[in-house]
Design a protein that fits this description.
2 copies of one chain form a homodimer. The first copy, chain A, contains 8 helices and 22 strands. The first copy, chain A, has 367 residues and is an alpha+beta fold. Chain A folds into 3 domains: 16-61 and 147-238, 2-Layer Sandwich (Gyrase A, domain 2), CATH 3.30.1360; 63-144, Alpha-Beta Plaits, CATH 3.30.70.1400; 288-367, Elongation Factor Tu (Ef-tu), domain 3. In chain A, strands 13-14-15-12-4-16 form a 6-stranded mixed β-sheet, with helices on both faces. In chain A, a hairpin with a 2-residue loop joins strand 9 (108-113) and strand 10 (116-120). Chains A and B meet through strand 1, strand 2 and helix 4 of A and strand 1, strand 2 and helix 4 of B.
């Protein structure tokens, strides 16, 4: 791994002080901001995440706030998911597409009230797309990035830790819903969500000054739970089939290719910009789709570019994420595979920078 | 410095192979892509740049292509600079602003023909803003990111090297203009421009397959000129007052605050979205502005966050970029300073993470 040159452009977060004190070893950059990727080691972090509880600085999930009379209409223009049933207090995973149905982001939308949303974004400047649209259409809506930095509490002991800090009522927060909980005289949005399959919460910390006090409170309250600073774990998220925008999908892909067709209500999502393009895709099956793929042999290197998937001498897809899984004792991977070769058990050859390996297509992810 | 975790999301470039072979030591991330920052050392790279010639992988300057009948009208909507005099063959530095006059990017626009532009962008997804606007306004224009990766040739021997590869007519290319030059049966746009004050060119390499052949051709042709792989140099660009979007300016700033008022023709740039907001700014002087600032004492650490500038106990600005300059034997910096304290020679106190220092405001940059 190479070094990263520090600059203001790679923004620090309200929790950076805590992250550094916990001995962060590596970062990625996400939405022009530092996202920790390794503390002890990717494997040690992985085992800890599955057994205890971690506090994650996911400030990089910047918010795009929509506020005003046209907020709801604009929100529906952005996504093919039908939002008519979305009530305040709900969080929806929403593919965001352009006029061609190409993915621009895959955020979680948080409906704060009838005319106010936060869109908790993946790695692209979604703010620019939303501002461009609202300007071009002269809509009555304010679109901006508020001072909100999410802190995720993930792992099997997340409920226990959160109860100690926010009280018993935290247990009442259902999956992909949120409640308001006080911290230092302020109400914080807390949702049951997060970028792992281990369960937990995301605290939308509104106001950077609350960052380190909250971080320290959680660390102190969870000492006997073996709480640690953590981060989204490359192995665990591939095992669980959690896609990563920019890695597993780009503007070149439709939601259907990404296996996100169940979030596309192309018949009823009236107003969605990419609806016409996706109506066609939803009728005809996509010709390629994301699949779980195992790769034989020793641990593969980090997947820093697409690795071609070959059937004989013909390319039929590519791998976009890969890691060695200690729990499943194989290399787990995410790839895009052509229809002709996507059936369960199909054997292909993957061309990694370190040579060819045997790859097997699966139907379901590992957990 | 921490390590950077590799992933496909941090895109490699058509020149990555050459960059790695040259022994790159550190990167930054820029437009979701790897940008080298150090080869030998920042100081050694700096001296080499000022005395010889370097080949820079600046693929991160992604292009936003506007093509179609409305391309010119859309281009003028994006910027307060009057583009009526811009002929095909010209490159214009164009601040891009939103409806409030806030900076969204500070790219170079390249006019390829009457209805076709490339916008060579700084670090933000300008594509999203432009696509959002053109969609909202239903304009007749295609907006996309083409397969174009700029390669910069910078340094006092740049003309000599370029002549060897592209012929004598390269000398006829004037500053911020471009010509078409053949390479391997393809015509490449080559402009006299670049992110240094040492002179040189930017080759808009259209088609990733041409990347390494061109890289190798330049390296071989310049062997006796001491050509090396290089990159934008933090010291040299601060000495020369070359601003960096995300570091020295953000959406929070107007072009006028950034000293870019000369690129804002608010009386005549009809159609520019931020024009109304900037008309006010252009009439009333901005209350703060970017200034060159020297910092006394030993070399300062990397500026990874804003450093407050204090007059007595009152904050009157902040530093956004800083580096030790061997040639000027002082720390050179770029900062935003309030009108009350921006006069030449004003002495302030800068609060760095390693303690307070004396800072002096200047009128002009070092070269």
């Amino acid at each position: 791994m190479a070094l990263i040159s520090p600059s203001r452009r790679l923004r620090r977060t309200p929790f950076s002080e805590g992250v550094e004190a916990a001995g962060v070893k590596a970062y990625t950059i996400y939405n022009h901001m530092l996202l920790p990727t390794v503390f002890e080691s990717i494997e040690a972090d992985y085992h800890h995440l599955k057994n205890h509880v971690q506090v994650w600085d996911v400030s990089v999930e910047r918010q795009v706030e929509l506020r005003g009379p046209d907020a709801g209409r604009l929100m529906q223009m952005l996504t093919p998911r039908d939002l008519r049933g979305m009530l305040p207090g709900r969080c929806y995973y929403v593919p965001i597409v352009d006029e061609t149905g190409g993915m621009l982001n895959d955020p979680v939308a948080v409906k704060l009230s009838e005319d106010r949303y936060w869109i908790s974004i993946a790695d692209s400047d979604l703010l620019f797309w939303v501002k461009g649209l609202s300007n071009g259409l002269r809509m009555e809506v304010i679109v901006e990035e508020p001072d909100v930095s999410p802190l995720a509490i993930q792992g099997p002991k997340a409920d226990e830790l959160m109860e100690r800090v926010f009280g018993e009522s935290i247990h009442n927060v259902r999956f992909f819903r949120f409640g308001l909980f006080p911290f230092e005289d302020q109400e914080l949005v807390i949702a049951r969500s997060g970028y792992s399959k281990q369960g937990g919460f995301e605290i939308y910390v509104e106001g950077g000054h609350l960052g380190m006090p909250l971080w320290n409170t959680l660390m102190e309250a969870g000492e006997d739970l073996n709480v640690r600073a953590g981060c989204p774990n490359a192995i665990e998220r591939i095992e669980g089939g959690l896609l990563s925008y920019g890695n597993d999908m780009t503007r070149a892909n439709t939601p259907h290719e990404c296996g996100l067709g169940r979030f596309c209500d192309v018949q009823t999502a009236i107003g969605c910009i990419g609806r016409d393009a996706l109506l066609r895709v939803a009728t005809d099956e996509p010709s390629r789709q994301i699949r779980p793929i195992s790769i034989a042999g020793d641990p593969v290197p980090g997947c820093d570019r697409v690795w071609p998937l070959m059937a004989a001498s013909k390319q039929v897809g590519h791998i976009t994420s890969a890691a060695w899984s200690p729990d499943f004792d194989t290399n787990v991977a995410i790839g895009m595979v052509r229809m002709s070769h996507w059936d369960e058990g199909t054997t292909l050859t993957v061309v990694t920078p370190e040579g060819e390996r045997t790859a097997t297509v699966h139907e379901t992810f590992w957990i």
